[in-house]
Amino acid sequence: MINAPKGIIVPLITPFNDDETIDFQAYKKVIDFQIESGVHGLLVGGTTGEYHVMSLEERKSLIKAGCEYAAGRVPVMAGVGCFTAKETIELANYAAECGAKWGLVLPPYYHHTSEDGILEFFKEIAAKSKVGIVIYNYPEATNVCLSPEMIYELSQEENIVSVKESADFGHLCKVLTLTRDIDNFSVFTGEEHFMLPTFSIGGQGAFGILVNLLPKEVVKLYELAVEEKDIKAARDLNSKLSGFYDLMEAEGNPYPGPVKAGVDMIGLKGGKVRKPLTQTTAELKSKLKEQLIKLGYEVK
């Protein structure tokens, strides 16, 4: 049985060269920075990693490199969602061969199906995959909302071990209540604004675009709230970070441009976003720089 994830998992950016090829040397430095900063796991090839503007071979190369660079220091989750169950299973099992522990899977979208169709989709993937399956509920992006009751049913499948909730907070609360007593199933938020509230009601972890830029601070937020039970200190830290939360989504959500610009400012390579995404505006970069200086960073 594959254990459920917990803690802070960074949805890694993908640095690109000027010709939009993947800069694997910069990618390794980003991964080293994250692991040295204390994150509990890496998500390679997720939405923040711009998988949706990559070929299948590029997605595979990113998963392989991410696992190699992590080198067992922290577990790896791979973005393996595809339009069909068959394709998803093939990519999930490729990720397993590379060393990934979990696979993040969106529901089928564009041509909407019934609830039975969604349930069958996830159950088939879970039964035939060699990684633990993490459900990605992101209705803003997919226009498909998985009901709390559906997630509860899926949580009882042996190889479905977690959900990444990027719906509203009320939805997350219902999912957490329904799945609280399910062995080996964890509930994550995928939204920065919901990190501290999620921890305070028993959620097991968080993803967040901001982790790419401020991993130490976000890991500390988790430690204060979950491990040390020091809610006052967690609230104080959350207040310091809150200025970044809106900036991460100021020019679109999901959109990795602002966090890539911030990563450039602290001396790593975030780089450009890949077309058809557009680059971060000078105005937003200025606001981001101001927030980093306020937090005590020297910026370029």
Description:
GO terms for molecular function: 4-hydroxy-tetrahydrodipicolinate synthase activity. InterPro entries: Aldolase_TIM (IPR013785), DapA (IPR005263), DapA-like (IPR002220). Its EC number is 4.3.3.7. It catalyses: L-aspartate 4-semialdehyde + pyruvate = (2S,4S)-4-hydroxy-2,3,4,5-tetrahydrodipicolinate + H2O + H(+). With 300 residues, the chain is an alpha/beta fold. It has one domain: Alpha-Beta Barrel (TIM Barrel). The chain contains 12 helices and 8 strands. The protein has helices at residues 24-36, 56-70, 85-98, 115-128, 139-142, 148-155, 169-179, 195-200, 215-227, 231-248, 257-265, 282-294; strands at residues 7-11, 41-44, 76-79, 102-105, 132-137, 160-165, 186-189, 205-207. It has an 8-stranded parallel β-barrel, surrounded by 7 helices. Strand 7, helix 8 (195-200) and strand 8 form a beta-alpha-beta unit. The longest helix has 18 residues, at 231-248. It is globular, with a radius of gyration of 18 Å. The termini are far apart. The model has no long low-confidence stretch (mean pLDDT 96).
